[in-house]
Specification:
By secondary structure, the protein is an alpha/beta fold. Helix content is 42%, strand content 15%. Strands 1-3-2 form a three-stranded parallel beta sheet.
């Protein structure tokens, strides 16, 4: 399982309507410092985390190794960067079909 954790509620930055609201950060996003480490432990999953591209490059081979068993990879990101990247991705997909 791969979890993108932006410590907020960044999904609302991707949805038309909420993302145009000036109250987005105040009422739609819920800032929190939690990680999924305890969730992984509760479900007996191996836990991997990545906060940088270098950490991600190190974690991926271990995460995908067949002998690793069930694992959770938590990638820490930030909400505004996620939204920006998603818009670039959406535009690239749209242009490939036109």
């Amino acid at each position: 399982m791969i979890l993108l954790n932006n410590h907020a509620g960044g999904i609302f930055r991707l949805i038309d309507g909420p993302r145009q609201q000036p109250e987005l950060e105040e009422f739609f996003e819920t800032r929190q410092p939690l990680t999924a480490e305890n969730t992984a432990r509760d479900f007996h999953l191996r836990y991997h985390t990545a906060r940088t591209f270098a950490e991600l490059e190190s974690a991926l081979p271990v995460f995908f190794a067949p002998e690793s068993g069930a694992s959770l990879l938590e990638i820490t990101t930030d909400s505004p960067t996620n939204a920006e990247f998603f818009e670039q991705y959406r535009a690239a997909v749209k242009s490939s079909f036109t």
